[in-house]
Structure formats: structure tokens, C-alpha cells
Amino acid sequence: MPFKPALVIVDLQEDFCPPNGSLAVQDGRKIVSTVNKLLSLPFALKIATKDFHPQDHISFASNHPSPNNKPFETMITISNPLNPEETQITRLWPDHCVQDTPGAELIPELDIGKVHHTVEKGQDKRVEMYSAFADPFTKPVVSQSKLADILHDAEISDVYIAGLAMDYCVKYTALDSVKEGFNTLVVGEATKAVDPTAVDEVQQELEKAGVTFVSMEGEEVKKISEST
Ligand code: VGL
Ligand code: ZN
User: Where are the domains of the chain?
Assistant: First the structure.
């Protein structure tokens, strides 16, 4: 298969960035200069994803009123709306990336003029969806984005991933990218984690699954410039 790389920029949105984001990732905004450098390279396809929730989304602690529920901490069990036997334990978050609010906007520093497609995810209020490909249920899958079709239709071989957050949406997007058959790379300087102490463990888990971590100076990024 010929080398045909795509860049996927995950959820570089106001709510994941300081100073005002409701779910701000430490130093999240600082990656934008590196992401813009990646955008200046001749990737065959450049895609930005957006977490894009309805106000009544299942992942918001505010939608599970109980004195015990704390955003960032409480884990709840949710069932597949199409198959109650399939369950998943998931974290509650502050309200974030609500459709048509300023927090859902991509940050204005992002060089959006170089992005070919924007893919929205997380619109189904019944399921969490960290991955930009699909929700985590499998029996059956509940919600899928158009990302897999866009990449397969363009005959992409390699998916380079940047964005937020390394330990949630970047992680699960990378895992699904491997499952979709793409050679999958995460650009280390172009991502940040909600929990910085989790970075090493998440990197190891991703590497075990077949994801390669690369740096801006590494061969894997250099070869983009030579790939026409
Ligand atoms: C994300 C938590 C909740 C992310 C999205 O983009 O990493 N994290 N929703
Ligand atoms: Zn979310």
C-alpha cells in the first residue's frame, strides 16, 4: 500500500483549553503551535474533530443529580441503549463542548484554513464517545462518525494523531484507528493529558496495541514533507 498520511487533530476546543475551558487540560492551548506546524506539512488529508454534546449528555455530572456525584471523579455504569446486557463503566465530567456554545468552538489559533474536514462526535446523549470513530459499545455499536469512511475513501495508509486529551479522546481514537487497519502514530509534543501522571502508562498501553509515538524531529514526521 502506498504511503498516504492523514493528520487527525482531536478536540482542540475551548472547553479543553485554559484559561476558560470547563474541562481545561493543563497546557492544552500550548500545543497549537506544534499542531499548526503539522498542518503546514503536505498530509493527504487533514481532519479536525469536535466533541459535540447535547446539554443532556450522559457524561455530564449535572445530568446525574446526587450529592455523591463529582465531576472528574465519579464513575457510573451505563448500558448499551440497544442491548442492556452490554455495560460500561465511565467517568462523569463537568458540562463541556455543548453544541452551539463557545466552549465547543475549535480554538481560534488553530489554522483551520488548512483543515479539509471537521468531524463531530458525541452527539448521541445516550453514550460516551471518546473515540472520534465510534462509541465503545460493540454488541452492537450505537453511534459512528464519518471518520472511518473519510479515511478509507481517500485510501489513507497512516493516521498521525494530535490534540486533546492524550488519556481520553486521543487514546481511544488511536486504538480505533489501529482497529480500522491504519498505521497509527501519535505526535508526542502535540498532545496533553487530563491526568499528566497517566501519560507513561497510556503511552505503554497504546504501544502495546500497535500505536507508534513519534516526535516532530523524528523520521516519521520528516517523511511527510517528502511524500508530495
Ligand atoms: C474528552 C473527556 C470528555 C476528550 C472528551 O476530548 O479527551 N475528555 N469528553
Ligand atoms: Zn466529552
Answer: 5-54+99-225
